[in-house]
Amino acid sequence: MKISNRLTTIITIVLSIAFLVIFTVYSYRIDLTEDNRYSVSDFSKDLIKSFDSPIEITIYLNGDFNTSFYQLRKSIIDYIDDLSSFSKYKISVKHFNSDDVDTEEQRMAKFNYLIDKGLKPTEILMRDKDGNSVRKIIFPWIEIAADNQSVLVPVLKNISSLSGEENINISIENIEYEISNALNKLQKKDVQKIALLEGHDELTEAETYQIMKSLSNYYQVDRGEIEVDASVLNDYDVIIIAGPKKPFSEIEKYIIDQYIMYGGRVIWLIDGVRLDAKQLSSEGYSPAIEADINLNDMFFRYGVKIHPVLIQDLQCASIPVNIARPKEKPQFDIKSWHYAPFLLSSDIHAVTKNVGEIKSEFVSISSVANLNSNLSSEVLLASSSHSKIELVPAIINLNNSDIAEDSTFNVSHIPVALMVNGVFNSNYTNRIIPQGIINSLPFREQSVDTKQLFIASSSIIRNETTGIASDSTTLSLGYDRVMNTNFGNEQFIVNAVHYLAGKEELMQLRSKTYKARLLSKQINKDKRVTIQIINVAMPIILVSILAVVFSLRRRFMFKRKIPN
User: Fold this and answer.
1) Which of 2, 163, 384, 429 is within CB 3.0–4.6 Å of 315 for a Cys-Cys bond?
2) Which phi and psi angles does 381 have, rounded to 5°?
């Protein structure tokens, strides 16, 4: 009997040591959460395995801040640990704490160092140890470095329409996407090509500078005209047509049509209405008429119509308007500019999920028309629930910008951007093919499975510029000077290009959803008291019950062992 007990003890010790050694060398974790928040996607696993050199990640989100930011920081560290288990080299993690200083001068020196690196600070409101509200500057960024290259990654989403807790939850949802996106930047080998078309008075290079700069981190970005060479588009995965004002020729339309038929993807940013921006700025008014650029037949064949109307919205930007009389000193007043709506983005599609509102101006309607059975469409951007439609021709007047009655804004969620997927019919089926085209592939009546994005406004991709000629500078895409706020325009366009360029696996990471599981602020007093009692009293009651059970059990066992 003693030998059997001794053998059992030895086997137990040996197995314990073996398990300890195995789980020390090979880490393994089973994700039992409902939303799989501790699982790494196959795409991220393959991506990290493709690196043949060590990776170093610097976390700048450090210091003394509230619990929510600690949760975000912990989620980042946990994900890096999970990702490291699939890497050929262990990912090294460094922490940079801007609060670890002795003097205010040292703090400012660290702040300036981070800002010079390109990290934008964020101001948050938190409570100190005494319960007082204080404002604090933090840097919610990480930096990923490999092969003497580095990428800065913002880890905090700041959507103005959401609460702090919701923004933190969205930020946690996006950790894998942001890190994988950065790794994808560092690892790019076969660079894909995209092009912005010219030749029809499209937005200038200065007006699209910011989006070209952002896209150049992932793609080779070119600009140019089509002319008559059909092969000029063959090497491009995506083409962007941004705000053309002059009509397209039939040769150009045919080349674009057959580019789509062979699987090409297009982002159309087309203004349904034409007006004179210079006259509006200098004189305060401008006529608005239908913009005809000879694309209506193509769009109709692809199942889409850009309506020559203008959307006004109560959820809009504000502009300074000179209210002084002629020859008097200028006096500016801030007024609502209903022609510049903040568009709502779909929270379902991977392109627009957690992007937030999109800044726009002079927006038209993009709707489905004659959509064939092989196509499907999804609305990505729409107006708010307090919109109205203005027909053209009309006179746009800055001085009448906020005179309209709110009761007239009674149209909800007017579609502005449509993603159309599937098999498109050619615009040139049963039509004469234009003459003079060179290097054309055999004509196709139907496309392979492909995608197109139709946006009824070019303002979404246009960045503002200040100054003249060599003294001019460009503002961030989606930046509003009056509100001093950045909207989601840049992220929306970059996501759209990723999606159309075939990076579906990367975009699927944006579809991750974690339940916030926050206590409702509307909970009534009775339920609050009940929850407080359960949280405070139940542990004490359970411990007391267990103590009584163990005490009775011991008394019963010892009573049986006492001889009569």
Assistant:
1) 384
2) -130, 140
